[in-house]
Amino acid sequence: MEKIPSYSTGDGHVPAGPAVPDGFRNMPECVLTEQRLAVLCPGPVQLLPSCTSTNDLLKTREDAPDGMVLVTGCQTGGRGRLGRRFASPEGGVYLSILLRPEVEPQKLLHLTAMSAVAMRRAVFDCCGVEAELKWVNDLIVGGKKLCGILTEWVGTDRVIIGIGVNCNTAPDDFPPEVRPMATSLRELTGGPVDPNALAGAMAFRLRQMSRVLLTEKAAWMAEYAAACVTVGKPVQLLRGDFREEAFAEGIDEDGGLIVRLKSGQRTTVNTGEVSVRGLYGYV
Ligand code: BTN
User: Fold this and answer.
1) Which of 32, 68, 79 to mutate to test the pocket of ligand 1 (most atoms within 8 A of CB)?
2) Strands across the sheet with 45-48, in order?
3) Predicted local distance difference test score (pLDDT) of residue 150
4) pTM to 2 decimal places
5) Do the Cβ atoms of 137 and 144 come closer than 8 Å?
6) How remote is the CA of residue 71 from the centroid of ligand 1, in Å?
7) pLDDT digits (tens, 9 = 90+) for 241-276
8) Beta-strand relationship, 69-72 and 45-48
9) Which residue ranges form the domains of the chain, and what is each CATH number?
10) Which of 138, 112, 117 is nearest to 225 (CA)?
11) Sign of the CA dihedral with 120 first, then 159, 165, and 84 last
């Protein structure tokens, strides 16, 4: 029979070891480790055992180099877009990258959309899963959320892109209100996924993106528009408590959603302002 690796010290005592989601205690390759990250995620990277929010922590690292990555498998204060909480149970990969673009924020309105394309490529690289995009920053598969992205500027010269991917997250570990609309790579591939390899693919694609933010914008935005399932559907626009029905007609060059309102008026809504739901559910 195949020998199962374990954390046992040989005297029957099993030390606490790193936090591993249930079911993965004997599968070290399903745990984020400094050794595996060093190989699979080369470049400036730091692994945190757990933290409040990788975005918040990276903001405090004023001297961090361009391309610096913080990664953890569990956040206690994960944040999403529009001030929402982002549930970050063990089993996920929560990663933030610092970029120091040499252009002003107004010229990078497409950054969140391009980051979504980078994450779509990373998930495909790592596991062959083809995700679709729900405007503006969600990766979805089969109508369920796999990944969310939060882009935050610190002044005008630093930007932090924070990404949460449901890697090996078990369904029961999501809060009940999130569970029906969440999926994970483990569920989609039918087996455990190495979070170190996923983090490596994410960092690689994000750093690649940062080199072509202006020069390859059109091609990346065309890929965004082609993968965006929001377009061509009736949607609800959510601004705080205010809801309005509209029809999503397209994506503009900066990743804004072009919508036709019930009044017939055509307008563009931007990330940071509005979120979108389907008329009958999440997508
Ligand atoms: C969203 O779906 O609204 C965006 C979610 C972004 C979550 C990531 S996880 C890593 C980073 N740290 C955070 O607190 N948020 C981002």
Assistant:
1) 79
2) 45-48, 69-72, 93-99, 158-165, 144-154, 138-141, 132-134
3) 97
4) 0.90
5) no
6) 12
7) 889 999 999 999 999 999 999 999 999 998 767 788
8) parallel
9) 28-227 (3.30.930.10), 234-278 (2.30.30.100)
10) 117
11) negative
Q: 3-state SS of the chain: helix, strand, coil percent to 5? A: 30, 25, 45
User: Which residue lies with its CA nearest to atom 2 of ligand 1?
Assistant: 148
Distance 102 CA to ligand 1 centre (A): 24
Reported as a single tens digit per residue, the pLDDT across 7-52 is 223 333 333 444 555 555 556 678 999 999 999 999 999 999 999 9
* Spacing of C-alpha 3 from chain mean position: 35
pLDDT in tens, 100-113: 999 999 999 999 99
Ligand 1 atom with the shortest distance to the CA of 53: 14
pLDDT at 48: 97
Question: How far apart are the C-alpha atoms of 92 and 167, rounded to whole Å?
Answer: 5
Residues 6+ apart with CB under 8 A from 170: 21, 22, 23, 91, 184, 186
* Other Cβ atoms within 10 Å of 16 Cβ, number: 6
